[in-house]
Amino acid sequence: xxxxxxxxxxxxxxxxxxxxxxxxxxxxxxxxxxxxxxxxxxxxxxxxxxxxxxxxxxxxxxxxxxxxxxxxxxxxxxxxxxxxxxxxxxxxxxxxxxxxxxxxxxxxxxxxxxxxxxxxxxxxxxxxxxxxxxxxxxxxxxxxxxxxxxxxxxxxxxxxxxxxxxxxxxxxxxxxxxxxxxxxxxxxxxxxxxxxxxxxxxxxxxxxxxxxxxxxxxxxxxxxxxxxxxxxxxxxxxxxxxxxxxxxxxxxxxxxxxxxxxxxxxxxxxxxxxxxxxxxxxxxxxxxxxxxxxxxxxxxxxxxxxxxxxxxxxxxxxxxxxxxxxxxxxxxxxxxxxxxxxxxxxxxxxxxxxxxxxxxxxxxxxxxxxxxxxxxxxxxxxxxxxxxxxxxxxxxxxxxxxxxx
Length: 405
What we know:
By secondary structure, the protein is of the alpha+beta class. Helices cover 25% and strands 14% of the residues. Strand 6 and strand 7 form a beta hairpin. The relative contact order is 0.18.
């Protein structure tokens, strides 16, 4: 509710002098934009600090831009409730499901631009394991709009533990090796066949039989491999070379423990049922963890400002820093509702405002029908509104120390 209150406030507030949209994000003071800074700070501060006081999250970060101008970027609270490390603007967050629109999705959008992917052909052409089964005729359009009839989710991790809660003997080791290459948490490595087991579970999970909107992350475990097969390029390298580096979003990465000290990464949860340790620099999502942290369902980390660059690229119609990343037409295609006639609010990969009862949705009631974004389970939210030129990002670790708070 906290992030929604802030977004409602900002959408209502930003009826200000119009500026031409910038190709690249720049910082500008509120006074230069004709905004009452004292009023804005007081209102947002009160909401953010109330969230911390009620222990909805130990700390958070908020960024707001209007027409390519960042006029509000502030941190609140601490990494954890011990109040030792204050949240800084250069800290990295676990994006959780925002990974869906920041990893495989822009890669697929590029491949659609290049006519290497067709959203309307059977999925079996891209994922051969679906040949001859119920999922073979699904299309990427249906899948990305969450209207393919895929099961919502699978608790993959449960197949790795015995009834007494201990790991099955072959599943994990405390040290990495050729047989156990995938880091799922600090000092915990999964067997080399783990990804194949995830793929097998998705293959064998029956369809729901209902071609209406139902959120599912299953296919997002497959998309990185599909991108690799089509591009003949390592997925991480493809994203870095074709998406992140050209726009200067250099902090966006998987498995940040390889590059950053812990004091620069916001921890998420003390896992008390699977990995049995603090998740700090390792992806929170259990399924993505079993993929070694490399998934488009979850797994991306980065700073709020670098996430803003990617979202602003979408707002700019696919261009940022004078570099054309995507065509304007493919951005429009993916950010518009794919099946509105089926009462499905979703774009292709992107979330959208509710079709009815907008006040009950994740976005503000005043957000335009053309707005788009995504939320994440760990307490993350990114939303862009082209009609208002507005970009809003809220980052927190609301699952610390537990998702049960």
